[in-house]
Design goal:
Chain lengths: 457, 119
Amino acid sequence: MANGQLQRDVVVVGAGYAGLTAARRLHRQGLEVTVLEARSRVGGRVWSEPLPSGVMIDHGGQWIGPGQDHLQALADELGGRTFPTFTTGEAVEIRSGARNTYTGLIPTSDPTAAAEGVEAIFDLDLAAQDVPLDAPWTAPGAAVLDEQTLGSWLSEHVKNSAARSMIDAAVKGIFGTEASEMSLLFALFYLHSGGGLMNLARTTGGAQERRFEGGAQQFASSMAAELGERVRLSSPVEALEHGEGDVVVRVADTSGTTVHARRAVVALPPMVARRLRWTPALPTMRDQLMMRAPMGAVTKVHAVYETPFWRDDGLNGQLVADEGSVRVSFDDSPSDGSRGILLAFVAGDECRRLDGLPEHDRRRAVVDDLVRAFGPRAAGPIELVEQRWCQEPFTGGGPVAVFSPGLLTGCGPALREPVGALHWAGTETATQWCGYIDGAISSGERAAAEVMAALAG
Amino acid sequence: MASAEEIVEAYAAWRDRCNANERLRRMLRGWDRVVHLEATDTGDRFTVTVHEQTVGELAADAVGAPDLVVTATSEDFADLFWGDLNPSEKYMSGEIVLAGSQEDVMRLDALSMVAFLDQ
């Protein structure tokens, strides 16, 4: 074929954990594979980078918790070491302008609010168990659940304002969005897929339990290294022509690379996939699914200090706040404590608001919130690193796509359904740990199995 | 160290509070379970039965097949039942160990937290 024309068995679009997992499986089965990645790096929503001070930070997905067996298996295979998230000491609660400290899962300065909040979480987690992970749209009462938002459910069931703000902070931290923006059915599915809200909000025993020495991107890098030149970086796909047994993928690079393949695995967030030009147009249900599942809005800020000074004050670096730009934070220091790092999440409405401000004002807002929570020593970070996921064109937000009301019941079956030679991967298509690295990996495995079966048939 | 008699006495008061708590009763629906308690220091064992949204009397020794096993020091059991200790804090710190299905562990954690907060 002409220069820039590649012929492959399978083309994979996107070199995040989902795409790389699928490509590696197919490569190991002896298929000719090419992975097209828009960025100059692999990993997608997982990105580890050393700071000028030498400390490695994770700009995106970073934790592993119990039950994340796919990520654990990959880490075991590739030799990853974990260490526990720092949790010793008290967390800080900012509520109604007052600062309190607390130990355990939730702030208890207002026991009645805490009890009501726990009951609501409990009720959500129980309802979540009735939502089938492989087909949420078949849940009992799915239509009624899908016409509500998580926010409308909370407004009805959580009357105590302190309890509500506590849950809202958790929702922002978990989904990167406001409770009012997502379908209740989707929220319940998501909670079920990650073992419940209580599990997703936890450090010890939950989804934020441990981190990786050297960062969470390393396994993506290892998989890419195994694939070698089959992974083409800085190769943003602009168009796909697809049929029953073939696809042609056009790359927006200077040489006009085109990949002809028998199958494609599209491992992109739904909204990012929708930005590509599809010929012929995708089935309406698939197109609507991609259109109506916007990304959450999240910025991760790492504030780096000489030492984790908050530990001297008996604090564990965790914050839950009902005002300000930073509603949730964690101690993200390296395991040896050689630096102190506070990880601040700016999500949902706060993320959108801050993203409209000049850099100086954004940084000021975050530091002010950290000072209020952790004292004057938080005022002078030696480094302050923002990762604004909404400003990443090849991701479009984070941490995950959230489904609008009516979408799961209206278009849910299109989530994983192949369209001719097109197969869909990505953490949004996962049945377990949707939105997490683990879900991305299992989705890649599932898509690879689909492709193998299709090519064998 | 707390004696078995003290744990029994504290438990009786805790049980009365639980059964008088409407929120907790709501949260117990559909959750009939047998819970064993094991005191690490004294070796004392007890059995709690939850049936039809009601917390039952404390049985001496481990009776029947448990859905959940709670392990803690005798002092922590006594403090928990006197309402002086947030069991969720002790669970998070690993001082109270809950063994059972993940769902049952999460439920017991939430229930005991509400029993503490809402007393």
